[in-house]
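It is worth pausing here to work through a concrete case rather than discussing structure prediction in the abstract. The textbook approach is simple: state the sequence, then state the predicted structure, then interpret. We follow exactly that order.
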Amino acid sequence: MRDHHPAKNHPAVSENHPGVGQGVYLYAVTPAGENGKAEASGTAGESGTAGASGTAGESGTAGASGTAGESGKAGESMESAERPPDLRGVMGGVVRPVPRGGLVAYVSDVPLDRFGEEPLRRSLEDLDWVEGVARAHHRVVEALAASGPTAPVRLVTVYTGEEQVRDLLDLRHDDFTEILSRVAGRREWGVKAYLRRDTPPPSPAPAATAAGGGDSPGMAYLRRKKESLRGREDLWRAAAERAELLHAELGRIAVASRRHRPQDPQLSGRSESMVLNGAYLVDPAREEEFAAVLDGYRDRFLDVELTGPWAPYSFTSIDLGAGRAGGVR
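Step two, the predicted structure:
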């Protein structure tokens, strides 16, 4: 968030554990339970979970009482479902709720010798460490999102204590409430489209072939190279145009859509060029219609892949004023 600044002047210890050198890792924010209040015990067990009236239905989406009401405000009209007990997060920390003003932040303690500002810079260079943190973060967010509206925050968002987390909920209350209203009862789906590797390039025009009959071997090679490049460019252009049409058609069905940058083959796990990396927030009633659109775009140009459903990461972005990937506030 643009008006929220890192708490660099606070001591780098948790308020709940003075002198231990612990920070508070933030995963996500949800609506509070019945009457907009979280239980006071502060644990993730039976006494500390939100009410069960908004539990997920058979389709895996929030039930009628767990979606945003007409007012779109946290509290009575946007109750959170019962949250999973004994949830473990980064480095095995116990995830606990921090309630404030009709919202609940879910956090766990982390050691500042790994998550402090300076150590974090070094830790982020260790890809295995980052992957482990990302998996734990994602596991917590998915568990929360399975139970009701959830606004995930960016990876490695760490505060010096719970009071800073409560300040965040006060400061950005309306932003979180708006986001939770938008994603309530909906799921994120991903669509990736790749240029088909086995698509043959267009054959050279007969006139061009005939004209090259008297070429020297070197000139003939250069001509064929040029035709091959032109063929690949034509294929890429056709695939990109098809991807644009696909994104637009999916966007008309979805409540909201985002187009991310194409992934590097090392991330996608595929050698083909990615021409679409889209995310779509979809109402459950339209998910079959959404998926059916993809069949019309699996052709000689595109290989289309559907992923999900996911927690609504692409539609809950709030700038918390952090550095590259979070950091201590």
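Step three, interpretation. The beta strands are 22-31, 96-100, 103-111, 151-159, 187-195, 256-259, 274-282, 302-310, 327-328. The first strand starts at residue 22 and ends at 31.
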